[in-house]
Amino acid sequence: MTRSQASDPFLLEVLRNAFDTIAEEMTLTIIRTAYSQIVRDSLDFSTALCDARGRTFAQGVCTPMHLGSFLDALEVMIDEIGGTIDERDYYIMNDPYAAAGQHLPDIYVVKPVFFDGSLKGWSTTLAHHSDVGGIVAGSNALGATEIWQEGLRLPVLKLIERGERNETLWKLIALNVRTPELVLGDLQAQMAACTIGARGMCRLYDRYGVATIDGAIDDLNAYSRRLAEAEISDMPNGTYRFTDHIDGIGEDPQPVILNVAVTIEDRRMIVDWEGSSPQVAGGINSTFPFTKACAYAALRSVMLADIPNCHGFTEVIEVRAPPGCVVRPVSPGPCGARGITGYRMIDCLFGALAEALPDRVTADGSGGSTLPTISGMQDGRPYIFCETAMGTWGASRANDGQEGVPHIGANQSNIPVEMIEAAYPIRIERYGFVADSGGPGRQRGGLSIRRDYRILSETALLNVRSDKRAYPPHGLSGGSAGAASMNLIKSEDADRILPVLLSEPVALRRGDVFSHQMASGGGYGRAFERDANAVLNDVILGKVTVQGARRDYGVAIIECGREFSIDEQATSEIRAAGKDAPAP
Amino acid sequence: MQWRVATDIGGTFTDIAYLDNDGVVHTGKVPSTPDRYARGVVNGLKELAKKQSLLLGRMNEMVHGCTIATNAILEGKGARTALITTAGFRDVLELRRIRVPRLYDPLYVKPAPLSPRDLRFEVRERVGADGRVVEALAEDDIRAIAETIRARNVEAVAVCFLHSYVYPDHERRAGDILRGLLPDLFITLSIDVLPQIREYERTSTTVINAYVGPPVRRYVEEMSADLRQAGCPAKVMIMQSSGGTVGAASVMQKPAQIVECGPAAGVVGAAHLCKKLGIASAITFDMGGTTAKGSLIEHGDFIYAESYEVGAAMSTAGAIAGGGGYALKLPVIDISEVGAGGGSIVRIDRGGSIRVGPQSAGAMPGPACYGAGGDAPTVTDANVVTGFLNQTALAGGTVAIDAALSHQAIDRTIAAPLDLDLHKAAYGVHLVANATMVRAIKAVTTYRGRDPRDFAIIAFGGNGGVHGAGIARSLEVRRVIVPPAAGVFSAVGLLVAKRAVSVAGAFAHELSRLGPGAADERFRHLQMQAARLLDLSANAVTYRREVEMRYVGQAFELSIPIDDLSFSQKAKKHLRQLFDDEHERRFGHKFDERNSVEIVSLKVRAEAEEDDVPAQLRMSARQRERETRNVYFGDAFGILETPVIGRAALELEPASGPLIIEEYEGTTVVPPDAVVHRDRFDNIIIDLDYERRGRP
Predict the structure, then answer these.
(1) Which of B86, B124, B350 is the best residue to mutate to test the A interface, defined by the most A CB atoms within 10 Å of its own CB?
(2) Where are the domains of chain B?
(3) Does CATH place domain B3-72+218-258 in 3.30.1390.10?
(4) Spatial separation of the C-alpha atoms in residues A17 and B471, rounded to whole Å
(5) A535 shares a domain with A521
(6) Residues B324-346: what's their mean pLDDT?
(7) A490 and A569 share a domain?
(8) Residue B636 contacts by C-beta under 8 Å, 6 or more apart in sequence?
(9) Pick from B91, B321, B354: CB nearest A433
(10) How far apart are CA A340 and CA A334, in angstroms?
(11) B516-540, pLDDT tens digit by residue?
């Protein structure tokens, strides 16, 4: 092992803890002081400490898809503000095209860190705001065709200038959003976190001296890079390709192609999205900084070491995409619902990596949050209910797919049924697993989750984005695909199937039930090789039916009263007959 | 003479503490006997009685801390537990809140549900959020399920219906039917355990209660039987995770309340110490062999955790996101934990950085210096190399060590690969361990908006005194207190703990709509319930009443103390004010009167009015020879010849470091740039002098 770093390795570990603790403290400041549910409860925000050039050296990551996404925005910011930086300033920006932002609801608030009169770095926050205007509440319309429809666009501006509030800007923001109290409250929470971060760094500079801290930041980046390089050098060189699809938007969905080639080349990786669909006239285009962050999150997830969340890690990963494609749109491509594409890019990358690292990834899962949103009138007042509904994973080489888990890209939570019913005219009538839905495999994919919502208000509007129907979650190593998603409206007169990604909301009436069944997880390995006792256990648990056990796994189960047992004879016959059948 | 004793059971040792008539604490350790813990306890008591010339027949009370409930969960050895839910919701327990405790880990595996899916049953019934019955209870469903349960060797049943906290009748009726048909089973209703909104947390807590019920009952029965057989009539009081003790019979009402009671007892001991010393607030730092724990005492009281998960290892994401263990929403003292202790293994990772823990060498093979085959260096080995720890034996001379093995392990794994001086490497490991453990303390201070510099640290646990001063230095804390018997401090905490319980009941009302006397009846009922659990007459109990409140439509509740139950306009205004203020303190903002406030539940914290135990907690004086050894205190000081003394030899007047105090229960390190004295309660008080270093 070579020691290329300048600082003492013990001090470096002490300072790394100190940096991380400051970033975490910024995170907790936001949780404690934010106003909106999406920031406070869904934790859709991140905090970071960056050096004077904008390179992150500690990040309080709540949303993995934010990893390493700050550099592009800070570089634009540093360029724009040039030499006019004042210690008391706070900057704000969100525009994907003018400020290398992610999508309009994600607003950056950044404060410079000064020590002894010179600029040392940036205390940075990014938060998803409850609304920034535009054609739908929440500002993530799938149906937007250009960015101007998506809400308030902020280039790099001073939210606070030399300690004075930029009142013009605050008033402008307040008037352009549907939830001014929440947005302004959350901006203040971000400012509070920036202040905490800057103060924490100043204390460290004071205690250890400028040379030590600056040296440690460089060493930490180098350390992070070394760890990542060591990880990559263990991976087999080669180019690994995968193609995935988003089902498409609206009544007549056209598949959106995501095509990736991951190249492992000694100690670096290249992620190339050449061959993906051109950008679309709908809000699912993923801006390039976000596309990069999704790649970092996916690749970080297949590395075993506890790599610090700093810039050095990203230096060994190059992300490429042709301008004008769905993962690198050009102005005025709409991108409000770019999360859909973000989740799918991570799924697609795992698909590609499965060939190189078959024991580090799972088969595909249900995907990201489907964001069911129900709005209407209750007691003469409008209500909007929205939740992050997730999720199921595909199987891995060692384990069955996990059930009741978030997408790897966003660690979000469900909302308790009792809290929903206490606040909204909605009754949840079912929340549970769907038997036989897991993708069959030697390791079984996780089961689909179904949640049924009955409308109790006179009328209501429903929005939901739940694809993986035409292209269900893939299996791995001979494992079968998972079950497709299925969304039904059950009315008194008839049932109807909803399109996958709604371009506009669906009207519902009192008593209608929205039955929301998410996709399941794909299987891993051939189902007929699954341990018969594991199949028996699934039958006992009601996760696989007796019929499903025979059909999907070739295991004959004898049911006697409430007791189940394996018919060994029949099982070996069925399995022998199915042995030569081609893998699904 | 009647006497009382405290026993605290751990995985390896059972700690015993006894307070004699002069207020002197006598402590001891005996091996735990996991096949039947009571045996080890009785052995230890016999030993103690013999040594102190006490009669077992005159022992009138044993206060007990145990790991039986925690271990049942961690080892998956609880009761075979069935769960009965509203139709459509049997998977709530397994789905949890979705969020996971680890980021970037696609191979994460969730903890298995404590009630497996084939033992989770659904019943047709439905109640709305407003308490109105949507669908009547199908009693035949319950009867059919009872038959199935009977056939499946189930030992415990949990019942949790949606919205039972506003309409308990369906659960009550289900409970009556089940108890009638299955009289031998341990049956728990959610409204008796946690009558609060949020179905996952309520279901999980109820299932935990059912899951640990039968093992806790067996355990308590064995303990009572073995004590009786030994001719000991003592009443057994058991510690709860809330910091109060309760009689063995009442424990069975809510056995989940004794999960994690051992660490709580240490905090109770620290709170008692604060009171004696006249300090209102302190940080507790409890460092053992595998973990370090931090907690906060503020205004003489513990801080309670808003959410707690059994078996969740603390991690950065975990602390924020949760999801790593089994949700238990009962009053639990907020104790944060990191996986770093004396036995934590030290290594260099692939990027060349030094990491401490969370892997531990455990009791077997233990640190390299034990010579039991462990060749990985641990924090203890680093402390041997620097000279902080004794060079020939640990634990007051009872565990012989070979310091050369520590030197070899640190050299081979750390110093040689980094091309560093051995002492520097060992001292560096000590610092990295401190940096890791500081997080546990930050989690209960800065993360809660408190500045640690405002507090003193009370350090205990086997290694608390070795690292206390270093931890204090990195937090800029000025004073460290190492109490007597620091190594068995949980047992001391048991001795001074009071009988106390918390009970709660749902009470969903908007504050503005409440009239005079609205909550009188409910509070009276809760107080009677509390007195019954304490097994005391109502007038021997002090009650503290609280209301859990939140802004209408919000997800967070805050507990607000309430004295004036009149709900007059004035009283309501005052209550609202208290709530707004607390909200602002915790979350940084409050809402104006356009946001109405609602009460969600009522809470009563009841404590026995008892005399305090004697003020003078003292050590029996154990003399030891004064000696010196060479100790490395980092680059700034190098190797110093350091006096090593016993606690009794420490002067009441401040003396300058460096100094090492060695005792049976542990070692305390006083760095060169600190002063130390012994106070009149025999506490070691270390004062860190910041001015001298020129740092604020």
Answers:
(1) B350
(2) 3-72+218-258, 74-208, 500-608
(3) no
(4) 13
(5) no
(6) 88
(7) no
(8) none
(9) B91
(10) 13
(11) 888 999 999 999 999 999 988 878 8
